[in-house]
Design brief:
The structure holds two protein chains of two kinds. By secondary structure, chain A is mainly beta. In chain A, the strands form two sheets. A two-stranded antiparallel sheet of chain A has the order 1-4. In chain A, about 15% of the residues are buried. Chain B is an alpha/beta fold. Chain B has a seven-stranded mixed β-sheet, sandwiched between helices. The longest helix of chain B has about 35 residues. Chain B is globular, with a radius of gyration of 21 Å. The chains are: A mainly beta, B alpha/beta. At the A-B interface, loops of A face helix 9 of B.
Amino acid sequence: MSRQAKSESELTWKELEIGGIVTEPGSASRYRTGDWRSQRPSYDFSRCIKCRLCQIYCPDACINETDKGYFEADLYYCKGCGICATECPTTVITMVDEGEE
Amino acid sequence: MVKKVGMEISVAIGEVVKRVNADVIAAYPITPQTHIVEHLAELVAEGELDAAFIPVESEHSAMSACLGAAAVGARTFTASAGQGLELMHEVLYVASSMRLPIVMAVTNRALSAPLSVWGDHSDAMAVRDTGWIQIFTENGQEVVDNVLCAFRIGEDPRVLLPVMVHLDGFHLSHMIEPILLPEPSQVAKFLPENKYPLPLDPSRPVTMGDFGPPVIYSEAKKAQEVNLRAAKEVVLECWNEFARIFKHSYHPVECYRSEDAKVLLLAMGSFCETAMVAVDKMRGEGKAVGLLRLRLWRPFPFEEIRKAAQAAEVLIVLDRAISFGGPGGPVCSEVRSALYPLDKRPKVIGFVGGLGGRDITPDGFEAIISRGIEIAKKGSKEEFEIFGVRE
């Protein structure tokens, strides 16, 4: 689903469907859950063994395979829970506070 | 030939639900609502009503099943009371927020503890802010008529809201009265087919009761508030149309001998008929008293209350529920607040009475009116008084 359609923060009360019914499938893909995050994953792919465990464990299913076969969270959705960092067997992932390099 | 038939009011409700051809009834029995759902279960079992009767394990499930039924566009009915209504509480908000037209008869019952199966309005007042349209009734005919109206109001495409019809537990639910049931031809003329505009339908998928983050929740609530407030026009239209077909008329505030009254009593539900006897007696003694009966509780009829009460000197409000530690009964509090912006307004005196099935006789209403007049003159140390309580 396109992220460009009218966002919820622009809708007026008059534009809502009856009872807030959502008539468009997949519209939840527009929720920017990434802005709930206080920490984000940071990666050192030199240690990555491409085991995919981070992707399997991610409760938001927001970890995608990159062109080089590594795995990286989509920060539009990543809530910063840190499960990927905990599960990574080779400590590729470190959680860093948002706002830090 | 349409004629009045003597029947228990609970049974009569079942008969109306049969005549509107309800599709789904999901209910859990609780005193004093039991006879309504028992009769409906019987009508379905005997094949007299082609509906799904869902016997559920609790009132929470009853209302949840009603949500699902209304969401596919089924004509949906349930009934509850007291603790049962409380157990439904969270789902009541979901029904109104999702704009699902469910009709519920509430046989008003006191809340525990101490355990009481008898009537008062504590249950109704606890669900005041759930966003349902709420109508109070005074006798069997009013119950029957307003259950029929509730389907038309709730299912109206301009409204799409659940509707509660309140009737006093036992005082009405178990009473046998002469009742005029609507004829099938009248129902057909009065009640259009239920056409929910966006039902759950596999061929056109929708999401109901979606996640509402802070950026959209206020907009959703504003839409809900505007919608419930605007429903008053449709309620009035429905009652006018009802009067045209059935020859009984209903108003948000019913006025009885109130035009030139200096002192008005305001009450709700079955107590009003007894109060009329007291008003008649006092009128006979030359006292300028009258009665207001609040029928439409939500949306609250601000204009009608102001018009009916503004010329009086004293307005005595009798609540059958207590807002503990608050300004008095909820009805008194709201009526006082509705009148406050007026330059000239009556003194509003609050009483609570008739709790947990305690009767108030015509003498009792006379005593309430007399005491109200006394408080209006001399004041009182209390925010409100509980009538008839033993000191």
